[in-house]
From TrEMBL:
Keywords: NAD, Oxidoreductase. InterPro entries: D-isomer_DH_NAD-bd (IPR006140), NAD(P)-bd_dom_sf (IPR036291). GO terms for molecular function: NAD binding; oxidoreductase activity. It holds the Pfam family 2-Hacid_dh_C. Residues 103-274 form the D-isomer specific 2-hydroxyacid dehydrogenase NAD-binding domain. This is D-2-hydroxyacid dehydrogenase. It comes from Aquipseudomonas ullengensis.
Length: 310
């Protein structure tokens, strides 16, 4: 089996895959141009969507493509084929994303940055901090990752509610409603965590109208996609004190350009798309499991519905 591997960390992936499956013929590179001559000879592709997209654009198409990202937006561009099995990375980001959310939720409740500023100013701050117990957290995107985030938060006594494409019962959420209820639950939440994928239905949903419904003490954490937030509306809401703070991991343009309002917006922390990096060992395990499924004609984990965009 010839496998095309397009990854910045291709050497690490190659070592992991060869150790488990010595029979695989891996053709690996971190540059799409180096793979153009062999793309048509490899039925299976594994790698980053941004590196594989040029191969699709050049007219090549795999028998199956496994993305090493959870997001597959570059592979959904106009004019690209959609008549092949595409799978995204699933089941490997839950814990690291949960750790990320817990880190910044705790930092917010314990006023970590404010206390650091006081130390720099040599000002003693004895203001009491708030516990996580009883904190109302709304997770928008109650899928695989959202459920694992909720499971990590639940033991702290946090009140959990979720938003999904359709209302349904999902443990450990007290309730999960549909997208039409986002505005109402945003007003309920002490912390709103966005984990939604990038689809036409999830763009620009965090706008001035929604921020106006949030509590002035609330925290927004966006670890989903940058296009979900209207940048200017978020900055204006922070300036007006309509919410207490924002932790932004993903932006419409990355890296964020100099001069963007996010750099000096009040109470906004940028974390540089670091919330849930892909672990090559976990990704290799997922790929090998899906490869076995592919070779045996079984359903693939994380198969993308092109009509929905995820």
């Amino acid at each position: 089996m010839r496998v095309l591997l397009a990854e910045q960390a291709h050497a690490r992936y190659a070592d992991l895959l060869r150790a488990a499956r010595p029979d695989l013929q891996l053709i690996a590179a971190a540059d799409s141009c180096e793979l153009l001559d062999v793309a048509g000879q490899c039925p299976v592709w594994l790698g980053q969507p941004d590196l594989l997209m040029p191969l699709l654009r050049a007219g090549f198409k795999p028998a199956w493509l496994q993305s090493t990202w959870a997001g597959i937006t570059p592979l959904l561009g106009a004019g690209l084929p959609q008549d092949y099995p595409l799978t995204r990375a699933v089941g490997i980001f839950g814990q690291v994303m949960a750790e990320y959310v817990l880190t910044y939720l705790l930092a917010h409740r314990r006023q970590l940055l404010a206390r650091l500023a006081c130390q720099v100013e040599q000002h003693w701050d004895g203001t009491p901090s708030a516990s996580l117990r009883g904190t109302k957290v709304l997770i928008v995107g109650a899928g695989d990752i959202g459920q694992q985030v909720a499971q990590l938060l639940a033991p702290f006594g946090i009140e959990l509610r979720g938003i999904a494409r359709e209302p349904r019962a999902i443990a450990p959420f007290a309730e999960v409603r549909g997208m039409s209820d986002l505005g109402e639950l945003a007003g309920w939440a002490d912390c709103l965590v966005n984990l939604l994928p990038d689809t036409p239905a999830t763009r620009d949903i965090y706008d001035a109208a929604l921020f106006a419904r949030m509590q002035p003490h609330a925290l927004l954490i966006n670890a989903g996609r940058g296009v979900a937030v209207v940048d200017a509306d978020l900055v204006a809401a922070l300036n007006r004190g309509q919410l207490a703070g924002a932790v932004i991991d993903v932006c419409r343009q990355e890296p964020l350009p100099p001069g963007h309002p996010f750099w000096d917006a009040p109470h906004l922390l940028l974390t540089g798309h670091s919330s849930a990096p892909t672990d090559p060992a976990a990704m290799a395990e997922l790929f090998l499991d899906n490869l076995q499924r592919y070779q045996q004609g079984q359903a693939l984990r994380g198969q993308v519905d092109f009509a929905r965009g995820y």
